[in-house]
Amino acid sequence: MPHTQVIEQLKASLQTAYRQAIDADNRLDELKKAGHVKFDAIFSASEGFTTKSNRFTPYVQELATDMEAMIQNPESLAPALESYVPKLGLLLQTMQAFKSNAK
């Protein structure tokens, strides 16, 4: 698969993550108002993110910044994907688990 197709697929996944993050953050706001949100960050530094937030949208923003860097520097795409893909996967999995458990 040419790198342009890889980038387009990752962009689509990032858009999905963004939409899910908005919904998840709204749910987190509801839980916080009810006194149930008592954590500082969704992900730890060991999971690859530099962002530290108790909302999902900042993590999506970090991935969007990483995506832009990959587009600007396509010759370093392979090493960038090695860290990007696991973070995107973790974010999507975590939001799915949150959605399932927050019903």
UniProtKB/TrEMBL annotation:
Sections of the chain in a coiled coil? 7-34
Is the keyword Coiled coil in the record?
A: yes
* Keyword terms: Coiled coil
Name the record gives this protein: Prephenate dehydrogenase
Q: Which organism is it from?
A: Shewanella pneumatophori
